[in-house]
Design goal:
heterodimer, A: mainly alpha, two-stranded antiparallel ribbon, 11 helices, B: alpha/beta, Rossmann fold, six-stranded mixed β-sheet, four-stranded antiparallel β-sheet, globular
Chain lengths: ~290, ~240
C-alpha cells in the first residue's frame, strides 16, 4: 500500500513537470493555433541562461528571475521575427517553421554552451520528510505548488484583465479584434512572451531532476504533448490535469507492469496520444467549437 | 462640414480591383446608405474605410487624413465597423463581447454604464449575458454586433447588411433601434444594404454603387422616387 501511494505521489510530481511545459504549449496553441514544437528547446535555452547567470556569480533566485525576464522578451521577439511572417499560413508551413526553430535553438545552445552535462540546483533544496511511511521531497511539493500557482495566475490574467480578454478575443477572431481596436500583433507577442516565461519556469523545475544538457527537454516534450492532447490542447487546466494523469500512469506502468519497467515508459505518452485522438479528439476539456452559422 | 470625406477610393483583394475610384461624403448626424447589387463593391467600401483591404485614394475623417490607418487605428478614432458575418467572438460570453467592444477606452465606470445602455436597447442580450455568444441565433448575434459597436462610443458606425438573414419583423425592430441611435445619440450611420426598399425609407442620403463606381447620389427620397434608377440598379 505504501509503495502504491509512493508511486502516485512521485507520479504527481513528475506529472506536474509535464504539465508545466504542456501549459506553455497550450498557451501558444490557444492564442495562435500553432503547435510549437520548439517549446521544449526554448525552455532548455532559458534554463541555460539561468545556469549561465549563476556561473557569472548570481544567486539561484536572481538567476531564475533574470532568465524569466529574458525568456519573456525572447518569446516576444521570436513571435515578431520568426512567426509573424508566416502568421495565418498553412498548417504545414507553421509546423515546419517551429521544427526549424527547434533545430536552430538546439544547435545554438550547443554552440554556446557545448554538449556536456551539467548539474542544475533545485530552487527547493533537497530536503524531504516522512508522511505515514511515504517519503515526500520538499521539491515535489514545491513543483506541484508552483504549477498550481501559475495556473491560478494565468486564469486570473485571462479572465479578469483587459489584456487577457484581448488575448482571448484575438484567438477567437483576429479580424473582429482589430475592428474593436485591439492591436493583434502586440497581443500575440505578449502571448508568446508569457508562454516562453512559463516554459522557462518548467525548464528550471525539470533540470534539477535530470541533467542540464541541450537535449534534456526532448523526451519531456513528448510527455507534455501527451498531457496537452489528453487535456484538450486549448485548456490550461486540461494541460495540468493531463500532466498529472500521464505522470501517474507512467509511474504505475513502470512499477507494476513488468515488461515496461523504466525502459519502455515512453510508451505511456505515445499510447495516451493515440487513444485520445481515436476516442475523444477534443481531449478532456478541449472546446469543440460551439457556433451557430 | 462632412464627418467623412472619401475621394477617388480604389480598393480590392490581391490583383482584383473591386472599387474603381469612388468619391462621396457623409455629413455628421445623417443616416447614409450605399446601395447596389451583389458584387457592386458595397462590403469592399466599408472594408476600405476601415483599412481591412488594399486601397488607394483619400479618406478624411473629422477633417483628419486617415487614408493609411489600420483597422485598430480607425477604431481608436471612434469609427465602429459592424462587419459582414457579424464578427461575433463565439467563445466569449455576451457581456465579454460587449466589454471587448470598449477595448480602446479606459473609463471603467462609463463602460459599465454603457453595458447597461446596450441591454436597454436589446433586452434579449441581458437575458443571455453569461451565455457563449456563439450559441445565439443569427438575429441575436446581429444585435450583439450592433451593441458591441456602440460600446466604442462611436461617432461613425459602419454597418454591413444588418438585415441579412433576419426575419422581416426583426429587421424592422433592428432598424427602429438604429434610427434611435442615430437621432437620439447623434451617431452617424453609414450602412450598405441590398434591401433597398427597406433602407431607402429609413436613410437620409443614398449612393448607388454599380460595378465599383457610384452611379447616383442624392437624397434617399429622390432615389426612391426615381423609376429609372429603381429599375436599372436596384431591381425594384
Amino acid at each position: 500500500m505504501e509503495r502504491f501511494v509512493q508511486v502516485i505521489v512521485d507520479g504527481l510530481a513528475t506529472g506536474s513537470l509535464y504539465g508545466a511545459l504542456a501549459l506553455a504549449v497550450v498557451l501558444i496553441y490557444r492564442s495562435t493555433g500553432i503547435v510549437n514544437f520548439a517549446q521544449g528547446e526554448l525552455a532548455m535555452f532559458s534554463t541555460f541562461i539561468a545556469w549561465g547567470l549563476m556561473q557569472a556569480g548570481l544567486p539561484l533566485g536572481a538567476a531564475l528571475l533574470g532568465a524569466l525576464v529574458l525568456s519573456f522578451v525572447g518569446g516576444m521577439l521570436i513571435e515578431r521575427l520568426v512567426i509573424r511572417p508566416v502568421e495565418g499560413g498553412e498548417v504545414l508551413t507553421l509546423v515546419i517553421v517551429t521544427l526549424g526553430l527547434y533545430i536552430l535553438v538546439n544547435s545554438l545552445a550547443g554552440w554556446i554552451w557545448g554538449f556536456g552535462n551539467r548539474a542544475f540546483p533545485s530552487m527547493f533544496g533537497d530536503g524531504s520528510f516522512d508522511l505515514a511511511g511515504v517519503r515526500i521531497s520538499v521539491e515535489s511539493i514545491g513543483i506541484v505548488a508552483v504549477l498550481i500557482a501559475v495556473v491560478g495566475l494565468l486564469f486570473a490574467v485571462f479572465q479578469r484583465t483587459k489584456i487577457g480578454l484581448a488575448m482571448r478575443a484575438v484567438s477567437l477572431n483576429p479580424d473582429s479584434s482589430r475592428l474593436v481596436g485591439i492591436s493583434v500583433g502586440r497581443t500575440l507577442m505578449i502571448g508568446w512572451g508569457i508562454a516562453a516565461l512559463v516554459g522557462a519556469l518548467a525548464g528550471a523545475l525539470i533540470a534539477p531532476r535530470l541533467f542540464l544538457d541541450v537535449n534534456f527537454m526532448g523526451s519531456v516534450l513528448i510527455y507534455s504533448f501527451a498531457a496537452a492532447t489528453l487535456g484538450g490542447f486549448d485548456s490550461p487546466f486540461g494541460a495540468v490535469l493531463g500532466g498529472w494523469i500521464i505522470g501517474v500512469a507512467e509511474n504505475l506502468a513502470g512499477t507494476y507492469i513488468d515488461f515496461i519497467g523504466s525502459d519502455l515508459k515512453i510508451l505511456v505518452p505515445l499510447v495516451a496520444i493515440l487513444v485520445v485522438l481515436l476516442v475523444r479528439p477534443t481531449g478532456l476539456f478541449g472546446s469543440a467549437e460551439v457556433a451557430r452559422a | 462640414m462632412s464627418l467623412l470625406e472619401v475621394s477617388d477610393l480604389e480598393a480590392g483583394y490581391g490583383p482584383v480591383t473591386v472599387l474603381r475610384g469612388i468619391s462621396f461624403s457623409v455629413d455628421e448626424g445623417r443616416i447614409v446608405t450605399v446601395l447596389g447589387p451583389n458584387g457592386a463593391g458595397k462590403t469592399t467600401t466599408l472594408r476600405a474605410l476601415s483599412g481591412m483591404v488594399r486601397r488607394s485614394g483619400r479618406i478624411h475623417f473629422d477633417g483628419k487624413d486617415v487614408s493609411g490607418y489600420s483597422p485598430e487605428k480607425m477604431a481608436r478614432q471612434s469609427v465602429a465597423h459592424v462587419p459582414e458575418g457579424r464578427g461575433t467572438f463565439t467563445g466569449l460570453t455576451v457581456e465579454e463581447n460587449l466589454r471587448v467592444g470598449a477595448y480602446p477606452r479606459g473609463d471603467k465606470a462609463a463602460i459599465a454604464e454603457d453595458v447597461k445602455r446596450c441591454f436597454g436597447y436589446f433586452p434579449r442580450l441581458e437575458e443571455r449575458r453569461e451565455q457563449h455568444a456563439g450559441a445565439m441565433s443569427g438575429g441575436e448575434q446581429q444585435m450583439l454586433a450592433i451593441a458591441r459597436a456602440l460600446m466604442l462610443r462611436p461617432r461613425l458606425m459602419l454597418l454591413d447588411e444588418p438585415s441579412l438573414g433576419l426575419a422581416p419583423k426583426l429587421t424592422r425592430e433592428l432598424f427602429a433601434i438604429l434610427e434611435k441611435i442615430a437621432r437620439e445619440e447623434g451617431v452617424t450611420l453609414l450602412l450598405v444594404e441590398q434591401n433597398a426598399n427597406l433602407v431607402l425609407k429609413f436613410a437620409d442620403d443614398a449612393h448607388v454603387l454599380e460595378a465599383g463606381r457610384i452611379v447616383m447620389s442624392g437624397a434617399a427620397k429622390e432615389i426612391e422616387a426615381d423609376e429609372g434608377i429603381r429599375r436599372s440598379y436596384l431591381g425594384l
